[in-house]
C-alpha cells in the first residue's frame, strides 16, 4: 500500500512575501488568493515565518507599530516535508492549531503549501479506487487472501467487509489495514473466521523463568 504524501497533495509554487512586505499588501494577498496565511521567505527562498489572518487581526486590535511581515510573522514557521505522509501532516496541523503548512525541502527552501483543503482530498477518492486498493493491495498482496474469500463494498468512504477468513487474528489485521487506506472513513466488519487462534497466540508469549532456589 502506498499512502499519498505531502508532495502529492500540496499546492506547488506558493504565494509568499518578503520580510519587508507591508501590512496592507499582505492583507491584499490573503484576500486575492483566498488564503488564511502566507509564508515569509528571505532572498534565497528560505522560510522565516508565517503571517496569518490572526496575526493581522492581533496587530489591528492591539494597535502595535508592527507594519511589516518580519514584525508581524509567527516564527519559526511550522513546516512540513514533501516526503511526510498526509496523516503526519494532519497531526501537526491539529497539534499546532494551524490551517496551512509551508512545505520546505532539506535546505529549508519553500516548495509549496499544504492546506486543510488539500488534506480533504484524501476523503474524496472514488469508492471504486478504494475498493480496488483493498482487494488488490490489502487482501491479495499483503495478506494473501483469495479475492473470492471476502466481499468488499464501499459507499461514500465506508467499507463493509464480509466473508470468511481462516483465522480470527487475520480478521483483526484485515480491518486495521483497511482503516489505514487513504479515503476510508469507516470499516464495517462482518467477517467471520474458521479458527479462533487467540489461545495459540497466547501460548507463544514468553514464559518467565523460575527464580533460583
TrEMBL record:
Domain CBS as annotated: residue spans: 10-66, 73-130
Residue span(s) of domain BON: 127-195
Keywords carried by this UniProt record: CBS domain
PROSITE patterns with a match to the protein in the record: BON, CBS
InterPro entries named in the record: BON_dom (IPR007055), CBS_dom (IPR000644), CBS_dom_sf (IPR046342), Diverse_CBS-Domain (IPR051257), Transpt-assoc_nodulatn_dom_bac (IPR014004), UCP036990_CBS_BON (IPR017080)
UniProt keyword annotation of Isomerase present: no
Presence of keyword Cytoplasm: no
Short name of any one Pfam family annotated for the protein: CBS
Superkingdom of origin: Bacteria
PANTHER family: CBS DOMAIN-CONTAINING PROTEIN CBSX3, MITOCHONDRIAL (PTHR43080), OS02G0818000 PROTEIN (PTHR43080:SF29)
UniProt protein name: CBS domain-containing protein
Originating species: Streptomyces ramulosus
Amino acid at each position: 500500500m502506498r499512502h499519498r504524501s505531502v508532495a502529492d497533495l500540496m499546492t506547488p509554487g506558493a504565494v509568499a512575501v518578503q520580510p519587508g512586505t507591508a501590512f496592507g499588501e499582505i492583507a491584499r494577498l490573503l484576500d486575492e488568493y483566498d488564503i488564511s496565511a502566507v509564508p515569509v521567505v528571505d532572498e534565497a527562498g528560505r522560510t522565516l515565518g508565517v503571517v496569518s489572518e490572526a496575526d493581522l487581526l492581533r496587530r489591528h486590535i492591539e494597535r502595535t507599530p508592527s507594519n511589516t511581515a518580519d514584525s508581524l510573522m509567527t516564527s519559526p514557521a511550522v513546516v512540513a516535508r514533501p516526503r511526510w505522509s498526509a496523516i503526519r501532516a494532519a497531526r501537526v496541523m491539529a497539534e499546532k492549531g494551524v490551517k496551512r503548512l509551508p512545505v520546505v525541502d532539506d535546505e529549508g527552501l519553500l516548495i509549496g503549501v499544504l492546506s486543510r483543503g488539500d488534506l480533504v482530498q484524501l476523503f474524496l477518492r472514488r469508492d471504486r479506487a478504494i475498493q480496488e486498493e483493498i482487494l488488490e493491495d490489502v487482501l491479495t498482496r499483503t495478506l494473501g487472501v483469495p479475492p473470492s474469500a471476502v466481499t468488499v463494498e464501499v459507499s461514500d468512504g465506508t467499507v463493509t467487509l464480509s466473508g470468511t477468513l481462516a483465522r480470527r487474528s487475520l480478521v483483526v489485521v484485515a480491518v486495521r489495514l483497511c482503516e489505514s487506506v487513504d479515503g476510508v472513513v469507516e470499516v464495517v466488519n462482518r467477517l467471520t473466521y474458521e479458527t479462533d487462534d487467540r489461545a495459540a497466540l497466547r501460548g507463544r508469549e514468553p514464559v518467565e523463568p523460575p527464580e533460583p532456589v
